[in-house]
Amino acid sequence: MKRPRPSALRRWLARTPPPAVLAVGYLTLIAVGGLLLMLPPMTHTPITLSDALFTSTSAVTVTGLNVVDTELVYAFWGQLVIAVLIQLGGLGLMTFAVLIWSALGRPLGITQGTYLREDLNQTSYGKLTRLVWTILRIVVMAEVAGAMLLCLSFMPHHGLGPGLWHAIFHSVSAFNNAGFSTFSPGLTGYALDPVVNVVIPVLFIAGGIGYVVIADLYQRAFWRGWSLHTRMMMVGTAILIVGGVAMTAILEWDNPNTLAQYHSITARLTVAWFQGVTTRTAGFNSTDIAGLEESTSFMYMILMIIGAGPTSTGGGLKVTTVFVMLLATWAFLRRRTEVTGFGRSIPLGDVLKAMALMAMASAVIVTAIFLLLISEGGDFVDIAFEVSSAFGTVGLSRAYTPELSEFGRAVIMVVMFLGRVGPLTLGFFLATRMVPRVRYPAGQVHLG
Amino acid sequence: MKRPRPSALRRWLARTPPPAVLAVGYLTLIAVGGLLLMLPPMTHTPITLSDALFTSTSAVTVTGLNVVDTELVYAFWGQLVIAVLIQLGGLGLMTFAVLIWSALGRPLGITQGTYLREDLNQTSYGKLTRLVWTILRIVVMAEVAGAMLLCLSFMPHHGLGPGLWHAIFHSVSAFNNAGFSTFSPGLTGYALDPVVNVVIPVLFIAGGIGYVVIADLYQRAFWRGWSLHTRMMMVGTAILIVGGVAMTAILEWDNPNTLAQYHSITARLTVAWFQGVTTRTAGFNSTDIAGLEESTSFMYMILMIIGAGPTSTGGGLKVTTVFVMLLATWAFLRRRTEVTGFGRSIPLGDVLKAMALMAMASAVIVTAIFLLLISEGGDFVDIAFEVSSAFGTVGLSRAYTPELSEFGRAVIMVVMFLGRVGPLTLGFFLATRMVPRVRYPAGQVHLG
Ligand SMILES: [K+]
Ligand SMILES: [K+]
């Protein structure tokens, strides 16, 4: 106990595997955030430790499920803490740690590099510093621009000061796919607002597609210059957006709880657009989620579990994981010994990683649903929806989160944590190598 | 059109891939069975073509879902047709075809052998004839013994003639995991009958574990002599039986609709035993399935989707497929480049096959649930339970089958067909070979 603390920390960092460091980091952030939210200036009315920890977990994992109302219960300072937790959680603790290290003028050594790599699934050490600065530039640019544009919608209703804060909060929440809102009814009051319907989706799609893809789009030629990963993400995201929006419109068109409360075709299409595109991981809502048809709810569960892209602010299995599974199945059916897509071969290790991710995700989701069915009184669809939402760190709920028992809250907190940290830490196991027969040049895919 | 028909058939067989032949065979059997059931002597009251085709599909795929009551609607001749369809479907059309070929004294040529191999996932041509005779001996012995024992329970209540018929029908239905019953309320009237509670489970466990395993148990030394496949099946089946029965007892103990209607502990354990063990693929019920807790219903969905063993009369993903997935995930987490279990390595082609099966099963189940949610009015749990039951060819229902619309019936018929024929035909693609690094001796696993 006589040694100075930093040295003990450094020795711990050196002997602990990166996934464990990452998990401990997130847990620490959640604990600190929860304790901060308990302080009197944070809330209008006192909250329990369970309320505070749930909010903190939901913010750090950028999920957006809430047991207490963000607008009514949290004061400005509480909302600021939530915004900071969202930003730290969304960027990834490790990115932030390296940012601080390099800001302090320390060389980006191999040890620190390992942690960042863990968080971003990036294999080349050399490009890391550049990547981190690219990320930071994108985040600041996107969030400032988003906040400025959102002021156009929020200031007229709420005045200059509160309007600015709502705009900043929603910009941070949107870019980080957190789905938290400083409005009690979410964005239903802005369901037809053109600025909200463009700016917020642009922010969360950009945040959810992954930094690697954004950098590729920014620096390389269209399609031919893109990596296999970027191609998969762009095609997969396009399919999921078009499919999600179209199916929402078709299934909900005549539902009086959702689209049919609007008479004009444009209004219905606007709401279908927003709700269809937000479901994969952003988790904002511009209509009543508990009023959705069961068919739409089921489709949303699937979309939430698929989620967004790796190295992004989104959660879930990830688009590339599902894509690789589909390509592997297709290769199997065509009796190919090699999995290929977009003219690139996919290493067998990646296929096995996708499979392991799927198997573990299924285990987590099934176990959580089973536990909640036993512990909670409640509808199966509500419970399955809540668990899918937590695993995909989406944050949509059929008005079920506040009804959870203490045990139910614990289950959902664990699922949010695993949904966010699990796939990241599994990236660690990418190191597993198989011996594939290479015919096509090998492409690199991020699966976590 | 001047050529004789057998020659045209033979040419078609020669140029059509075996999975297509198998599928066409099953479809033909379903169509013929459906038309037969429309004949006046078959039923007490007229049935529609849709009723008849649904019954025929359910019988040929040994599922046991029913839109009309087998006891009240079908006369003796109809029940006999159903029993024959069950027997043909359970043994596998191709096994039967080869039995007939060899009974006619024709040599078991390479062409016919391919079809049988397809159906039984057996790779060595030489052992086929022996295997077929082993199968037939087992079937006849088991069903005759089962029927004789069941007479002890059924004859006192129903008289000699009807008692004998009930015993024969239930013996055939049990060994083939069909779950059809000539009693309207299923076996609830015999929920505490000791003979029924022993004989029927023994029959369907024997039928569901697969002929290959039975032959191994019969001919080889305990454990050391068993193949990797037999070890996996025995361990997996034991885990699923113990887990299913224990969880049924725990979850339903105080449910007045099911176990709590009995006062004695022995009675409750007896019902938990029967219902827990029958769920994986047999599909008999000795209690009210619609009265089960939602947690139990969800667990049963998982058990039904897992199903029984390959080369057996059961359906579903198969125990070995799930086992291989778990072993592969475990190997991945331990950063092993090779999947191993019970001291044998599992070829990478088998791992990919398991993955492809899982992916396609998920696609079928999700699509079917989605379609039924759109087309049918009904509870999500009822629908998901019905689809899981159809895919696993189990036949349990939360009293939902008779409520299906014509479109809903079509969906369930397709799922039953895919659940039975899909995994069998996928066995065809086992031919895909990877290049594994061999360290352990390679073991053979059946995944379909
Ligand atoms: K979210
Ligand atoms: K069955």
TrEMBL record, chains A, B:
Name under which the protein is recorded: TrkH family potassium uptake protein
Keywords: Cell membrane, Ion transport, Membrane, Potassium, Potassium transport, Transmembrane, Transmembrane helix, Transport
Superkingdom, natural source: Bacteria
Regions crossing the membrane: 20-39, 74-101, 131-155, 198-218, 230-251, 300-333, 354-374, 410-431
A Pfam family the protein falls into: TrkH
Major localization listed first in the record, in broad terms: membrane
Cell location: Cell membrane
Gene source species: Paracoccus marcusii
Membrane protein topology class: Multi-pass membrane protein
